[in-house]
TrEMBL record:
Xref: InterPro entries: THDP-binding, Transketo_C/PFOR_II, Transketolase-like_C_2, Transketolase-like_Pyr-bd, Transketolase_bac-like, Transketolase_BS, Transketolase_CS, Transketolase_fam
Family indicated by similarity: Belongs to the transketolase family.
Protein name: transketolase
GO terms for cellular component: chloroplast stroma; cytosol
Binding residues for Mg(2+): D233, N263, I265
Description of how the protein assembles with itself and partners: Homodimer.
Keyword Metal-binding: yes
Transketolase-like pyrimidine-binding domain sequence ranges: 431-603
Site feature Important for catalytic activity, where: H103, H340
Amino acid sequence: MASTSSLALSQALLARAISHHGSDQRVSLPAFSGLKPAGSRASASSRRRNAASMSKIRSLRPLVRAAAVETLEPTTDSSIVDKSVNTIRFLAIDAVEKAKSGHPGLPMGCAPMAHILYDEVMRYNPKNPYWFNRDRFVLSAGHGCMLLYALLHLAGYDSVLEEDLKGFRQWGSKTPGHPENFETPGIEVTTGPLGQGIANAVGLALAEKHLAARFNKPDAEVVDHYTYAILGDGCQMEGISNEACSLAGHWGLGKLIAFYDDNHISIDGDTEIAFTENVDKRFEALGWHVIWVKNGNTGYDEIRAAIKEAKSVTDKPTLIKVTTTIGYGSPNKANSYSVHGAALGEKEVEATRNNLGWPYEPFQVPDEVKSHWSRHTPEGASLESDWNEKYAAYEKKYPEEAAELKSIITGELPAGWEKALPTYTPESPGDATRNLSQQCLNALAKVIPGFLGGSADLASSNMTLLKAFGDFQKATPEERNLRFGVREHGMGAICNGIALHSPGLIPYCATFFVFTDYMRGAMRISALSEAGVIYVMTHDSIGLGEDGPTHQPIEHIASFRAMPNTLMFRPADGNETAGAYKIAVTKRKTPSILALSRQKLPQLPGTSIEAVEKGGYTISDNSSGNKPDVILIGTGSELEIAAQAGEVLRKEGKTVRVVSFVCWELYDEQSDEYKESVLPSDVTARVSIEAASTFGWGKIVGGKGKSIGVDSFGASAPAPLLYKEFGITVEAVVDAAKSLF
């Protein structure tokens, strides 16, 4: 039997998940104990099918090269497989038809490979979607999400009941128009923007490889699962997929198996119009093993053989190109763009039912299909229970490693971890906040088992290297420095996958702040999918100097302040940098962005780690009765300027409050009483200063206040001269304040 501690671990993990998904009672604690080849691209003529005669399509049996190893043994006769596959197809057809919205084509074409994956290959427990050692599945082509909802429904996940299928794409349903991990237990990551999902899958597979290398022992393998993905032509076209898949090949992620839905149709029509490269050869060049299943419509044994072969290749990821017919079974719309993103229509649904011999009512699952799939509930429970026993034995034999792994699985941080963060006094030497950030990163890596990350080929500039650890590479996957190369977009999405693999994995990634333009899509998905990635963004303003306007961020801070569920930090010194990291580590459902300086800054009086939690706070004030003559507000490198301007005004007899606004989002969370203590409503004389766009500052300084910033592109020159020319100076703040008296 599993130990009491492993049961507690299971309950902690699942309880955390229930909290993550709100009050939905359909996910409950389990009653059982446990913790919780390459071929050339077919020509256009040879691959076009006669969409008007699906009987001919069904009779096709294209020759497929023999697999390198024997096929997987089918779990049952082909008739039940056919019926299960068609059940998946018609659940998708019926849901899209009822919603009058959606993408039926992909589920209809991908049903065979998806059925074999979920019914014959993958290891999971439908009653505990968060079992740690489950196989992960990512539908990168997220528009085809009814495929995934149908699979979860058949497999017995409580999150997708018949009523949920009928509520597809409707308000409040568990079946939104694209897969959302925060809405539907059983969904690993949020996909929709094409290419993001396969990059997430790379992150999930990286996490498995890293944890297996760290914690598995010759006599105890407690980390052992695969990551599967389905991606389409659109994913292949997006540059992010190439970035991430290049890294997957370089890292040798042998437990990543991706199915390429090779149906040659996109929204605008046949992919001949824009996408004619040889994907097979490209992936071989990226370091992947490539297999081609020529008959993805009915070639069940060929799909099984491909999966078996993929699993036999352990030193590289595998791409299984599966040539399918989009909208398979539809007599008049199959193999056309019209089945990609719209309901079939009542007449075509009836024609498809007749064509595939499907006599059942909408949303009806045949009894024999229900019976066949029902085994996954007890089998899943048994899989988890067996793993629990293995973990319990591991825990007894390797208690230190088990404690670290438990922290990663549950997200429970070690007691007193925050005490490792450095503290500073005004007498401490001044430094660039990027350097102070490095001190924090290295301190955290020593005390948080799941802390890892890296930079987009800028580690020596971003100052992100973990000095106590080596590089995560194919031969050294236990190490914690991730070398992403110049691949910002892929980097961000891979980190999302790492963060969503286990609650206690805390990834960070870094580049110059201006290059968030290359990765904004992934950062937005971080926020949407509640992935607590830490974005370490250096060279945060015109203060970077001579590199000029191509490298000087202007509008970036304002844009991230506008992004929901994102914490945008701009710390002014060491204490604020440490305070930002303290918050970022604890905010596991919210990504954090730290905008850090290249130039050296002083350690300011009045700042503190604790005060950062408030988002905005007073660092100095010579007024009384909460009635200063003027309030000066700054962030980052400009907080020093605000403080100096305050001293000038005080010498002239004014009462001045200086406020750090290190994180607007945290300030917005504070009580009205606290906000009044910082920015009293009766004091309208307010001046803000930030070396960035003034957009948004109006809500802080009010209609009578003034904002000093940079509302044009920067220039190439030494930083001090730039600050003078752009008016980011003490004198400018003093003059603005005086104009308000």
